[in-house]
Amino acid sequence: MNSFRKIVCSLLSCLTLTLSLSLQAENRTPVFNYDRSGGHPRILLNEQEFRQLRKTVAKHSPLQIVHNQILTISDELLDKPVLVRKMIGRRMLSVSRDALQRIFYLSYAYRMTGRKAYLNRAGEELAAVSRFTDWNPTHFLDCAEMTMAVAIGYDWLYKDLPATVRDQARRAIVEKGLLASFDRSYEKMFTTRKNNWNQVCHAGMVYGAMAVMETDRDLAERTIERAVANNPIVMEMYAPDGVYPEGFSYWGYGTTFEVMMLAALEHTFGSDGGLSLYKGFDRTAGYMLYMVGTSGAPFNYSDSGTGVAPHPALYWFAQRYGNLSWVWNDCKLIETKLGKDRLLPAIVIFARDLDFDKIVPPTEKVWAGNGPNPVVLVRTGWKGDPQDKYLAMKGGSAQLSHTHLDAGSFVYDAAGLRWAMDLGTVNYNSLESRGVKLWGRTQDSERWTVFRYNNYAHNTLTVNGKLHNVKGFVPVTEVYREGRELGGEMDLTALFPDLKRAVRKAVLVDGKRLVIEDRVEGGENPATLRFSMVTPARVEMVDGSTVRLTQRGKTMLMHFKGSQPCTIKTWSTKPERSYEPSNEGTIIVGFEATVPAGGKESFEVTLEEPVG
Questions:
Q1: Domain identity same for 346 and 393
Q2: Residue that finishes a domain, picked among 350, 374, 390
Q3: Does 335 lie in the same domain as 380?
Q4: Is residue 198 part of a domain?
Q5: CB atoms near residue 386 (< 10 Å)
Q6: Distance (Å, whole) CA 52 – CA 248
């Protein structure tokens, strides 16, 4: 009886919400001409464009590689069990992502080859996930990615799906996706957030809306209008120069879903509602290009991983703004590290009009951008010369989504290896399952007890053994783009209440060595200054001012000097809690020095390859 009552209440709630949305829809001026949506398929490609795409893929080697990878993985999917609803902690996200990969790949494979096995298997996946009790709207990213998955399958396979599967998918999109998104307790998770949630969740809902446009018009229009109204708050964060505040990995997440949404809106309605016009968005592909070093590793600040793979969104940017150098790295990754990204078919779609013969490396050595998490990125070459160097540094604040206490930090590549590194992120569920309150931002938040998240584990300064001031903002105050020095300068003063002033300058000098100069002014009392650098190299003391770093048969010398005596030290990267990553194979090297009260001191650390 209780179960029956719950079902009735749920149906009444859906009916009430649908009526409310319909009434609201009558009182607004639409952004788009929804009458031009056309038939299926309409998301990203129409029937004619699919036919043309088959010819285009055959002409371009990079697209052939991506296409063949999708078909290979689709073949592997044919014999796998269909997905089941499975939670990991509070998330079902891994299942939603698997669904997006499977349905996107299989739908693409069928449209490109006509092979019925792909259609049948895609239909089985659509039916399976449509039968889930829900798509876990309590963690709405899960719901958003699943809605996008089902929307693509429903739209692309519409004419060939069995009627029962098609009806199951439509009802699931409406009830488990769109209507759930208007439940206020779920809607507030993403509509007002200024981070990747806004982008991913609106994108998923827009795809769902576009898929069911002809059967659920009012609900679909309301969903799309909401996205256009609320998405600008996250688009504003690219200003002024295109830096993505959440870092490398979340650019790959948030910006890619943003582009998926913009591309779909423009394809179907002829406009993205002006969302792509926000300041800095037209430069953000350059940020992502320069975020990968000569070692092949990214500048993985904040909650970013160390892996690299092609980013479908970069091909959209290259086509939209006519800058083919933005995909210079990505085209090489297609050949070496293509991977199994769930949105891989988007590369073929976004790159189909590119002239691959005209893709050339960037000409500028320095890319710098201001904003809430400013960066300076220096790369001296792009063609794999072992003499090429890479320096990346960041300012910013710990008050942003996914940030660490890493303001002032840097990474450094030379001889094809990373010498100064960032340890990266930690699996969220591994901490949450132990009761760690991971998402606080106050000075005493438990987040900062996680070793990889605090300043002791980053390539920055620490004063008197204290955490950084979490509300302190570090701006980039100088950028050196030409001449003997390439790099930048940051004002770290706001991080250290016990100092009167702290400024860090990090530059590549003559393309041969890295120099980090820290100028500090003491406060009312003497202070202990610690310089830290995390490295994967073996550290060997040479003398009182030099250490030798060795890895993979390569050597780097690290020199220390200062206006006050520097005591060279190493610190372990092993955290106190066993359930945190062990960080095996890394060590922290640096120095400690005393800054007298009121003293104006300068310290310099140089990294250079030995001569001869």
A1: no
A2: 350
A3: no
A4: yes
A5: 11
A6: 34
Give yes or no: residues 180 and 60 share one domain: yes
β-bridge partners, 412: 391, 420
Q: How far apart are CA 244 and CA 252, in angstroms?
A: 10
Same-domain pairing of 402 and 451: yes
Task: Report the SS3 class of residue 154.
Answer: helix
491 and 344 fall within a common domain: no
Q: What is the CA radius of gyration of the chain?
A: 26
The DSSP code for 607 is: E
Q: Do 298 and 388 fall into the same domain?
A: no
What is the domain count for the chain? 2
64 membership: H or E segment, kind and range: helix 61-77
Look at residue 560 and give its three-state secondary structure. strand
Give me the residues of the chain with pLDDT under 50, please.
Answer: 1-16, 18-25
The one-letter amino acid at 392? A
DSSP state of 341: -
Domain span including residue 516:
366-608
User: Does 31 map to a domain?
Assistant: no
Amino acid at 572: S
Q: Would residue 545 count as lying in a domain?
A: yes
Phi first, then psi: give them for residue 245, nearest 5 degrees. Answer: -60, -30
The amino acid occupying position 46 is: N
Supply the angle between the helices 163-172 and 140-156 in degrees, to the nearest 10: 150
- The confidence score (pLDDT) of residue 29 equals 83
| Percent helix / strand / coil, the chain, rounded to 5 | 40, 20, 40
- Name the domain boundary from 316, 350, 384: 350
Instruction: Return the structure tokens found at 289.
Output: 């290009």
CATH number reported for the structural domain that contains residue 168 in this entry: 1.50.10.100
Terminal-to-terminal C-alpha distance of the chain: 84
Whether 217 contacts 257, CB under 8 Å: no
pLDDT at 571 (0 to 100): 98
Residue 612 and residue 594: Cα distance in Å, rounded?
A: 36
CA-CA distances (angstroms) from residue 152 to 88, 208, 219, 260?
Answer: 25, 8, 18, 12
Burial 434-468 (b: 16+ CB within 10 A, else e): eebebeeeeeebebbbbbbbbbbbbbbbbbbebbb
Left, alpha or beta for 396 (phi > 0: left; psi -120 to 50: alpha)?
A: left
Q: Does 205 lie in the same domain as 56?
A: yes
- How does pLDDT run across 106-130, given as a tens digit for each residue? 999 999 999 999 999 999 999 999 9
Which DSSP letter does residue 88 get?
B
Measured distance CA(241)–CA(126) in Å, rounded: 41
Q: What is the CATH number for 431?
A: 2.70.98.70
Q: Encode 465-507 in three state secondary structure.
A: CCCCCCCCCECEEEEECCCCEEEEEEECHHHCCCEEEEEEEEE
From residue 391, give the alpha-carbon distance in Å to each of 360, 411, 535: 22, 6, 14
Task: Give a yes or no: residue 41 inside a domain.
Answer: yes
Residues 426, 533 within the same domain: yes
